[in-house]
């Protein structure tokens, strides 16, 4: 089994690339979904977040994700603190989920903060999906129902394309139509299967 990191900023189309590779036979672990699961059930992590960010859980102990996002996406130091707290939990749960798919020849580890979390160390290769800035803003607004200012703040809090170009072995440019994205994804999948 090959573990392939899949990364890139918000709104680049990682989910579309992952879905296409899954249709071709790849396994898939979504770091964001792992994180959401931990936010729903991991009391130790939730308590640490609450202590660090001053009341980001509600009266039932559930994480108030919009409140936390507003805090961390406006301050790089707070975003780094969020990652410092959550990374060990996400890493352990993600590795368990990857191991559970050992029958797949390729398992994608879809992680926007793959390098920041040090998760590239367990990947055999890493793919970045990149897209133009304004396209990403539009996608985030549509997908997450955010105001434009919040969408731009989210992108601005993430690494630039040059970061991914320097660190990733493979780049998928998602700046065309869906057929082009599928063609590029299919071609890369065939390379990964060798």
UniProtKB/TrEMBL annotation:
InterPro entries reported for this sequence: Depp_CoAkinase (IPR001977), P-loop_NTPase (IPR027417)
GO MF terms held by the record: dephospho-CoA kinase activity
Enzyme Commission number(s): 2.7.1.24
KW Transferase (keyword) present: yes
Record key words, sorted: ATP-binding, Coenzyme A biosynthesis, Cytoplasm, Kinase, Nucleotide-binding, Transferase
Enzymatic reactions: 3'-dephospho-CoA + ATP = ADP + CoA + H(+)
Protein family (similarity comment): Belongs to the CoaE family.
Cellular compartments annotated: Cytoplasm
Chief subcellular location: cytoplasm
Protein name: Dephospho-CoA kinase
Function summary: Catalyzes the phosphorylation of the 3'-hydroxyl group of dephosphocoenzyme A to form coenzyme A.
Organism whose genome encodes this protein: Agathobaculum hominis
Pathway it works in: Cofactor biosynthesis; coenzyme A biosynthesis; CoA from (R)-pantothenate: step 5/5
């Amino acid at each position: 089994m090959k573990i392939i990191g899949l990364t890139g900023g918000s709104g680049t189309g990682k989910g579309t690339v992952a879905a296409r590779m899954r249709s071709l036979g790849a396994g898939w672990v979504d770091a964001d979904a792992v994180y959401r699961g931990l936010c729903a059930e991991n009391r130790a992590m939730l308590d640490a977040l609450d202590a660090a960010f001053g009341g980001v859980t509600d009266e039932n102990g559930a994480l108030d994700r919009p409140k936390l996002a507003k805090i961390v996406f406006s301050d790089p130091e707070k975003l780094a603190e969020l990652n410092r707290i959550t990374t060990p939990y996400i890493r352990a749960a993600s590795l368990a989920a990857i191991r559970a798919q050992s029958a797949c020849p390729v398992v994608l580890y879809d992680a926007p903060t793959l390098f920041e979390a040090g998760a590239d160390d367990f990947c055999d290769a890493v793919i970045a999906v990149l897209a133009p800035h304004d396209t990403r803003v539009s996608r985030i607004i549509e997908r997450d129902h955010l105001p434009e200012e919040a969408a731009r703040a989210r992108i601005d809090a993430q690494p630039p394309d040059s970061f991914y170009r320097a660190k990733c072995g493979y780049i998928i440019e998602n700046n065309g139509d869906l057929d082009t994205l599928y063609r590029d994804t299919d071609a890369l999948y065939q390379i990964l299967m060798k």
